[in-house]
Batch of 2 targets.
Target 1
Amino acid sequence: QVQLVESGGGVVQPGRSLRLSCEASGFTFSRYGIHWVRQAPGKGLEWVAMISYDGSDKYYADSVKGRFTISRDNSKNTLYLQLSSLRAEDTAVYYCAKTYMDLYYYYFGMDVWGQGTTVTVSS
Amino acid sequence: QTVVTQEPSVTVSPGGTVTLTCASTTGAVTSGYYANWFQQKPGQAPRALIYTTTNKHSWTPARFSGSLIGGKAALTLSAVQPEDEAEYYCLLFYGGAHPWVFGGGTKVTVL
């Protein structure tokens, strides 16, 4: 079945970096865009970033632009999110989510989500 | 700064019907915003319910339906079950450099 598994979360000091991974299975990874969405403790969902199926298009929320970098390796069926210059307000569960439609039809939204990985930024 | 607004909380009786709405500070929500709806229960990842305003995923129960009402995207829960108690989020597509914005979520209590 379609599955997304995030990893790489942990406790990190402010100003440091971390790389999250999202490993996909059960579908043709190279045909689908993938999103990162986060949820701070007790808060709502916040869209973070999205990368197109071939990695040619990348989009970021203002809150992370210039600090986070989304990338993918289609040969490994894996998505990445490089988090840099981390702040306390980046503390959250980070989810990856697959676009519902393939190729450039990413505006249709998301369907399958992973279970999330927790990032805690604290000194 | 685009803001997507949802009711903070609603309460519904078992077997009843409730409609949640999703509004945009940019004006009326139309089909071009490709509204999505998600359900999230405590300690779980979100689950997709509706895409492109009205379409259900294969796993979406028939009692959930999406529509446009009065310039807002809407999610109607009919014949509400106790297991429908959850947080519900809408997602709108704006395009451009920052394409997607989530609403703040609506907590649905079944009582």
Target 2
Amino acid sequence: QKEVEQNSGPLSVPEGAIASLNCTYSDRGSQSFFWYRQYSGKSPELIMSIYSNGDKEDGRFTAQLNKASQYVSLLIRDSQPSDSATYLCAVNSGGSQGNLIFGKGTKLSVKP
Amino acid sequence: NAGVTQTPKFRILKIGQSMTLQCTQDMNHNYMYWYRQDPGMGLKLIYYSVGAGITDKGEVPNGYNVSRSTTEDFPLRLELAAPSQTSVYFCASSYGSGRAGETQYFGPGTRLLVL
């Protein structure tokens, strides 16, 4: 059973701080990794994708991938109250169907 | 582009009733997916399709059926609704090939309550 694990939180950080969200996955053959943000009552929207070991930066967001440790993380710098949401980690299951396996999500709360 | 659209937004069903959740995408995506999301449980794949006329089961297909007669539409059918099917249902689509093609785009969701 391929699994994606996340700490459910809630993770609470003060405004302006760095929020660090973590994810581990069980399938060593996974090649593609995604972070989705989901506001309460809304649908998931893609924030970042990462495919190679190391860091990938996009504005205030940095995704980090370590395939040897089967670990992917998302850092949010200068956190804003508008970042308060649930963050879903998703991993491509490795098949040709493009199926993603989602973690249960980490709820982030940014306090003003 | 409207992206991925879903209807209805919300529905209450009685036990044993049937209904179809509609999903349409206008991005000419090959791949389409149906997920359900229960509180605190993440997204579970129900069915997926890699093109018109081709569908396959996901992780939790029991109690559901799908069809894909066109590239744009991917309806989900619930037969004999049960309280365990109370959930939020999301349809998603992706281009399907290449790394950029793996990104899935989600519709706004359908909230279903079975009483």
